[in-house]
Amino acid sequence: MEQQIRTSEVLKGVRYEIRGQLAHRALELEKRGYEIISLNIGNPGLFGFRTPETMRLAMIENLGQAEPYCHQKGIFPAREAVVMQQQNRGISGVTADEVFIGNGVSELIDLSLRALLNPGDEVLVPSPDYPLWSAAVALNGGVVRHYSCGKDRDFMPDVADIESLVNEETKAIVVINPNNPSGAVYDQVTLTEIVRLAEHHKLVVMADEIYDQMVYDDAKFIPTATLVNNAVCLTFSGLSKVYRACGYRVGWCVFSGELDQAEEYIHSMELLSALRLCSNVPGQWAVQTALGGFQSIRELVAPGGRLYQSRQAVIDRVGESRFLSTSPPMGAMYAFVRLDSRFDGHLDDQAFALELLENHHVLVAPGSSFNTPYTDHFRITTLPDTETINVVFDRIEKCLEHHA
What we know:
The protein is an alpha/beta fold. The protein has 14 helices and 13 strands. It folds into two domains: about 10-50 and about 300-404, Alpha-Beta Complex (Aspartate Aminotransferase, domain 1); about 55-290, Aspartate Aminotransferase, domain 2 (3-Layer(aba) Sandwich), CATH 3.40.640.10. A seven-stranded mixed beta sheet has the order 2-8-7-6-5-3-4, sandwiched between helices. A four-stranded antiparallel beta sheet has the order 9-10-13-12. A two-stranded parallel ribbon has the order 1-11. Helix 5 (about 130-140) links the parallel strand 3 and strand 4 (about 145-150). It starts with 20 loop residues before the first helix and ends with a helix.
């Protein structure tokens, strides 16, 4: 056998199991004719959710203007719409110059970390996390330090634990709110404590708020940037989730707070943005209509709305199970479900997810994929209709009955 091409050593620190080996195995099973219920990814379009018609029309009507490259930061109407949203939320001092449009939030996470980090710089990332954050830190030469959002605290951040991790190499702290994968929505006291800690230690605050309007019952979303006064804050959001437009690949990053401290940082982001010329232009024409138009997400997350009812179906089925438990998700589109302690030592999350896929044709994401120190959770998306959710939990119960 000929010697294999050696790949980059930096990839040894990168994991993204949401689309990893289990997803590859699911594809193999589908090619053999099996129907797989895939709950590993929050992809609204696969579950019958449509992008609002007004957004589609806005994109189509402006296709003639979408053929050339645009400014590396994005088209002005899109950036100005983001500014207006920020102002309406009480975030002052932001202009279109502080807004970057990217090919989804994913690209902007990578660019913002690349512009910030030197080798060995540390970034505080929650555990459980959305694994792209940990991967992007590693790919850009940084070191991830995970702070605890414990299952015994309903996945709220432990600010004392965050404080204990800060040192001279710490450059930034990541806040994912509403949280993926846990569905936790952070209260004002917790967010304020995190922000004050960041201000005290001169850390950049990176607020991943892609699920900002996707909250349930009495949960209230509080924009992190409204609390930041004496530090630099980057807010990330986009069209993928709230506006059900994942394939448009449109996200934005907004600089706010102590902008005088961010001049060099913003310039570096401009340079990196220019190197990739610009982000997808047609999708950008949907931003102004999305942010300024009717917010259909509110009906979906209200009692009786489809997202609300599907979430409730998950909560009900977990509550009825002898083998499962969860903290009811108050935001986003996922449930982080715990296996009963009777399975400790002989059925971890990876083994459970593999058996559920092979024998019951349901694909879920093992909890340890989200950089947890424990292996007794799994994540599912709450996007399917209630009928599908009931089918899924019937199969989960059958799988666990065998081991119980």
